[in-house]
Amino acid sequence: MLSHIPQASRAPTQAPAADHAPETTEAYLETLQLLERMHRLMLDLVKDEFERLRRNDLTPVQALLLYNLGTAEVTAGELRSRGMYQGSNVSYNLKKLVSMGYVSHERCDMDRRSVRVRLTPQGQEVRDIVRELFMRHAEGLSMSGVLDDPPIEMVNLQTRRIERFWTEQIRYIY
């Protein structure tokens, strides 16, 4: 259909997209790998911190659940949507955290099927340990200039845009 348009007229609009797409695609694929590796490294950092403190009663995922629960009172579904957890593990880990005394739970008045959870003082202590770990890391990264180029706020903005795109893709499927 475009055969009647001279080749020179078509080239400028097609060439930049063709040249740019492979680089952008490769950078995006590298970002996916980095995100996965960073998540695993974050779990290792939490594990190392708890081993250093001789606290072997929690897994890194459980410690992050406590950290992400924070001061809120939420349902398991809300907690799952906030964090980086596989859906089937949240309920299991919450049950373990309740039995170990880190989380308290009670049925919702409005929907008796739903359970709301919040940290106990013991859970707040764990949250504070993880928060202090992350604060030390933020300070070290800030002092080294790593968070300045590009500014971490711009990295977060780009990451939130990707998150929004992924969320829309999931909603579109269902």
Number of domains: 1
Please provide the ordered H/E string of secondary-structure elements. Answer: HHEHHEEHH
Can you name the CATH architecture? Orthogonal Bundle
CATH topology: Arc Repressor Mutant, subunit A
Number of helical segments?
A: 6
Strand content: 5-15%
Main beta-sheet strand count, sense and barrel state: 3 strands, antiparallel
Strand order of the largest sheet: 1-3-2
Question: What is the CATH class designation?
Answer: Mainly Alpha
Low-confidence stretches: 1-15
Structural class estimated from helices and strands: mainly alpha
What is the helix content? over 70%
Radius of gyration (Å): 22 Å
| CATH homologous superfamily descriptor | Winged helix-like DNA-binding domain superfamily/Winged helix DNA-binding domain
Distance between the termini: 36 Å
Keywords: DNA-binding, Transcription, Transcription regulation
GO molecular function, one term: DNA-binding transcription factor activity
GO biological process, one term: response to stress
Domain HTH marR-type: 28-164
